[in-house]
Design goal:
The two termini are 47 Å apart. The chain is built from six helices and 14 strands. It is an alpha+beta fold.
């Protein structure tokens, strides 16, 4: 089984180089294969700026540098063969169909209008309908509406009406055999968007997926950071046995780590003391020494990475706990 991980994130503008760097660094930490970004605010001339050494393919629907825009990024390690695309000239959605791990996937990234606009979803699902046959379908993005107001919004009374757009989405989910992958596995109140204007939290982002892959999926909502929307990851276990090749690269930042410098100097000295003798040629000694030190570097790097990962995970859990507490407190005040 080979996992395929997608992240979806409304980044609320990514034109700033500093913000783009922070966003991409966080995405890299999540170790994702396919990245779906909404509200990129990129113009047509700027879309190629999203291509990087890690994400070698980018597909974008652009509008202007102040609003809309969606982008799909494909990591270089993914065995990706593009079959077809649909790009919305209004910068609202992009549809790609591709062969990944020898399976056909239809992936949709969308940023819906922030008003009750069922016509938009009629148009979108009409486009999707020509791709869904014999395909694993994943529809993801910012839908700008909740599907279940009583549990998907922090300040909504239980008897609030469902928007026409939400009714339309639910109808197409039934028609296309799609399910809300987060809600089908979780009955919890957990939110993905904070509105500072209304002081409210909501879940307006969805991973709508083919019902058949639900047993093979895992979905996680990450903390609301760097944007007013939370990134969400979906991992699908595919049946592929494909394993991407990995080339080891030395992390030059370790050279600034005094502890690393001390350890490696000692390991090199110990190696020479044990192995440097007239019976061993200098070239053999050098090649053997490099292999030994490489192993020590990998071991140290792994140890440091686990330490840093634990600190980051602890911090993220604290952020999520405080976010949920604030959302609960806000909801109780409005009841």
């Amino acid at each position: 089984m080979q996992p395929l991980t997608l992240v979806s994130w409304n980044v609320h503008g990514i034109c700033s180089q500093a913000k783009k760097t922070n966003i991409m660094n966080y995405i890299t930490k999540l170790n994702v294969d396919i990245c779906l970004l909404q509200e990129t605010h990129l113009s047509q001339s700027e879309e190629k700026l999203m291509i990087s050494p890690q994400f070698s393919q980018a597909f974008s629907a652009c509008y202007n540098s102040r609003q809309r825009g969606v982008t799909i990024l494909i990591h270089r390690r993914v065995p990706f063969i593009l079959n077809s695309t649909v790009i919305d000239p209004e910068g609202r959605y992009i549809i790609i169909q591709a062969t990944i791990f020898n399976k056909t996937f239809t992936i949709v990234n969308l940023y819906a209008p922030n008003n009750d606009d069922p016509a938009f979803f009629h148009t979108l699902f009409s486009q999707i309908s020509s791709f869904t046959a014999n395909s694993i379908t994943i529809v993801r993005g910012d839908f700008n509406t909740v599907l279940n107001p009583s549990i998907d919004h922090s300040n909504t009374p239980a008897n609030v009406r469902l928007y026409h757009a939400a009714k339309t989405i639910n109808e197409y989910m039934d028609d296309f055999g799609l399910v809300d992958s987060w809600r089908i596995k979780n009955r919890l109140r957990e939110y993905m968007f904070f509105s500072p204007v209304h002081q409210s939290f909501s879940r307006i982002h969805f991973f709508l997926t083919s019902n058949s892959i639900i047993p093979k999926t895992n979905i996680k909502i990450h903390p609301i950071i760097l944007s007013d929307h939370a990134p969400v990851t979906l991992t699908v276990q595919t049946e592929s046995t494909f394993k991407p090749s990995h080339t080891w690269h030395f992390n030059t930042l370790l050279l600034k780590d005094p502890e690393f410098d001390k350890i490696i100097r000692k390991e090199w000295a110990d190696f020479l003391e044990r192995n440097d003798s007239p019976s061993i040629s200098p070239s053999l000694l050098w090649e053997t020494g490099k292999a030994v030190i490489r192993g020590k570097i990998i071991s140290y790097s792994s140890f440091k990475k686990k330490q840093e990962q634990k600190l980051e995970n602890d911090l993220e859990e604290k952020i999520k706990h405080l976010t949920n507490k604030y959302a609960t407190d806000t909801s109780e005040q409005t009841d």
